Amino acid sequence: MRRFARVALLCLGCGVCSLLYGFSQLALSLEQEPGAGRERQARDGARRQAGAGRDAAVSAGRGEAGASRCKNLSVSFWNSYWMLPSDVCGMNCFWEAAFRYDYMRTHPSEKMHLAVVACGERLEETVTMLRSAIIFSIKPLQFHIFAEDQLHERFKDILDDFPYEGKVNYTLYPITFPTESATEWKKLFKPCASQRLFLPLILKNVDSLLYVDTDILFLRPVDDIWSFLGKFNSTQIAAMAPEHEEPRIGWYNRFARHPYYGVTGINSGVMLMNMTRIRRKYFKNDMTPVRLQWGEILMPLLKKYKLNITWGDQDLLNIMFFHNPESLYVFPCQWNYRPDHCIYGSNCKEAEEEGIFILHGNRGVYHDEKQPTFRAVYEAIKNYSFGDDLVHSLLQPLELELRKTMHTYCGRVYKVFIKQLTKSVRDLHARRSKGR
């Protein structure tokens, strides 16, 4: 009798679970009926936004919905469903966890999407950035290169000669802005700079994207910054680094005439985006009580603040995230290390401890003698030939050049420029020895 009682109790439990699941699906279907207001869409959208790092929009099917909500949570797919965050998965976590496992099993090597905008004399700088991304990255890369028409053939000639080994694909795009306001956007800050604001609207089939300026150098695999997508909570849509670590030398907190994010603002030279979430989000703003979507908010922001902004599109992003701070994931300074982190004395503690992960040579420091430490890294990567021994062809010559810069503030901490690069070379050798 005791055995039968246990079986009956188990069946009763399964019946209750099935009943709860049925109610949850009914509630979900009612929520999705037309006629809901924008505020409700914004709240519901934040809960249902797709997980980062996949190349497909959420489908109507139960399996895809489960995968979209849960597959990129920081917990492992084998964790029990009651350990998954309730605010993300709700009552369906048992099924969603299973679907997330199935998605991971059937999509083992998704591409990482990287975008850059190149105009004027930025071709060489852009190619050097792409080279740095290729050298260490593990997963396949898809480059989205936005460039002036006259640069397309030159890009093709150079990139088609790269020994990709099936690791990289690229697509070239023209520079495009909304027709009715193209002139205003072209004049904002630098030529083509504001193109990045329209990437979520142009690359409609790309779920997640890493945008970088042309003057970026990757000193570790792109995979590592791409993994931050899996750390986003249910409200975060993008990740950037602070503009400054030290408020006493900060620009925004001393000079800005508009709202900005946090204490010192954010720098948009390295911007990781869940573009599915960006396209769905309704943004709070100081222009109207009605929340606006990405494509609706850009032009009104420009009209309101165009006389008060100095850094163009970066200022507009600061304004947007000032009003929507819950939507931003902030990563440490070594993921966007600029001259400001060393010319006034070292002020990026994370880089001092672990080295520089991504080098950002803004203000043209790769091409003049003002910051020879930055220029030495740029020249070393630009001159490296794919297939050469990284230790003898890259690391050792670079360290010799860096030692010559010790008369400068950045040169005094030259070891932070080579610490992570050394580790990346060692890790790459280890992967190759294992045949990966």
TrEMBL record:
Keywords: Glycoprotein, Glycosyltransferase, Membrane, Signal-anchor, Transferase, Transmembrane, Transmembrane helix
Matching Pfam families: Glyco_transf_8
Class of enzymatic activity (EC top level): transferase
Enzyme Commission designation: 2.4.2.42
Any one of the GO CC terms: membrane
GO BP terms: protein O-linked glycosylation via N-acetyl-galactosamine
Catalyses which reaction(s): 3-O-(beta-D-glucosyl)-L-seryl-[EGF-like domain protein] + UDP-alpha-D-xylose = 3-O-[alpha-D-xylosyl-(1->3)-beta-D-glucosyl]-L-seryl-[EGF-like domain protein] + UDP + H(+)
Region (Disordered): 37-58
GO molecular function: UDP-D-xylose:beta-D-glucoside alpha-1,3-D-xylosyltransferase activity
Compartments, as annotated in UniProt: Membrane
Compositional bias of kind Low complexity: 48-57
Biased composition, class Basic and acidic residues, residue ranges: 37-47
Membrane topology: Single-pass type II membrane protein
Family: Belongs to the glycosyltransferase 8 family.
PANTHER family the UniProt entry points to: GLUCOSIDE XYLOSYLTRANSFERASE 1 (PTHR46012:SF3), IP22168P (PTHR46012)
Function: Glycosyltransferase which elongates the O-linked glucose attached to EGF-like repeats in the extracellular domain of Notch proteins by catalyzing the addition of xylose.
Name recorded for this polypeptide: Glucoside xylosyltransferase 1
Species for this entry: Amazona collaria
Top-level taxonomy: Eukaryota, Metazoa, Chordata, Craniata, Vertebrata
